[in-house]
Known about the structure:
By secondary structure, the chain is of the alpha/beta class. 42% of the residues lie in helices and 15% in strands. Strand 3, helix 6 (158-179) and strand 4 form a beta-alpha-beta unit. The protein is globular and about 80 Å long. The chain has a six-stranded mixed β-sheet, covered by helices on one side. The chain has two domains: 7-231 and 352-466, 3-Layer(aba) Sandwich (Aminopeptidase); 239-348, Alpha-Beta Plaits, CATH 3.30.70. The longest helix is centred in the N-terminal third of the chain and has 27 residues, at 61-87.
Amino acid sequence: MRSAMPLAALVVCALARPIPAAAQETPTERTAAADVIRRVNDLERSLALPQLVARLTGKDPRRDAVVARARELMERELLAMADDITRHPEVGHKEERSVKILTDYLKAHDFAVEMGVAGLATAFVARYKNGTPGPNLGVILEYDALRGTSRDFHGDQHSAQGPVGMAAAAAVAEFLTRSKTPGTVTVYGTPAEELASPAAKTVMYSAGVFKGADVIVRSHSSTATQTPGPGFGSCCMNIDVVHYTFSGAPAHQLQAWDGRDALMGVIELFNHIDGLRKTLRPETKIQGIITEGGKAPNVVPDRAAAEFWIRYPDPIYLAQVLDRVNDAARGAALATGTKVHIDVDSSSRNGISVAALNDVAFAYLQQLGATKVEREPGRPLPYEETGTVATQIPGVGVTVHSSNGGYHTFEMEADALGEVGHHGFLLDAQAMAALLYHFATDAPYRAAVQREFAGLQGLYADYLAALRAAYPLPNVPDPTGN
């Protein structure tokens, strides 16, 4: 485990980078929404973020004490807790053991826990008992494992997100009480991030669970230390999750003509989607599995099903892709003499990426000794992975190098138990604690975050309107005879 120097001993310089041109992910987005992006850039320049970051990351003994406390909690008990959860993976909505460990710890640190919020058995809210009126500092915890074919596993390091978040929450909560600083801390236990059916954070948001939070922080595993650019979240979390259930008629496989093969309907759907790919924009991602394929080789399957995750960087073109995939399913049913039921059971959307939060967190990660640092901001990304919350409440997702393996791999799980993971988790907790400290104690900083977030919210509708004009559908004439 690597040790970081105390913040007070570091040479503090203006670690914030010059403000880049806001860059959405695709050329179409950048061209069609050029005017909106220009206004985003104007907003960002008006915030004077390099100077703000330099001021916040300068000498501050009270902050250093909060950061040191977060590190102490991690080293004394929470890294071991993360290892324990890693070794006992539980998939979405079944995280009973992990949730008990996390909530027992929160109760021992003066948090009142409410279980089963929003009708989700393994979701919870923990409120600091000694909080006072003032900024409500939110911390999101995740704890579900990936579903694997050989075994379930923590190949995305969600096992550490709970301990990391609790270290920051407890350190800041103790500071609020000790210093008599107005404010409180609320911890949100969010299950089943790897399951999109239903999107747990969206369910919780709709039930009012996040109401009253002024800012939200979370951490996530990363193969590099990164920060997103400001703007509207793009790519991987604009998802439509769709279930396609095909119905046929059973028969003996030796007389298959007496039935209609639902599995062939599913197979044709995969074939039809492959046929679509060359006429879809290259950023489109369509990923599917067969979830039902029949029960016996000698019986024509009268029921088969597939689940697809359809992704695109923005929701406007994503809607067109969904229509085409649904048409492919209907065509597969017609081609095989079967029938198909289409169920779009959840839609996740990206949110708003706030530089005033991202840049401060990133500056602390660099000060604390992060590895594999990518100094240029990447595409805009929200802090949570359904987008619903991130369009309504400002927040930051801290992503420090914590694995040399790829996402959703056994290598990333192994790294959670080793030096690279432990080093990253320590930095996550300390950077989150520092940022929450500033939000609680620095009114001008809070105002800058709120002004940037409100400005981006106001531009989002214009951004979507610009994109609607960028994706015209081709005119396909009716065929004519010879």
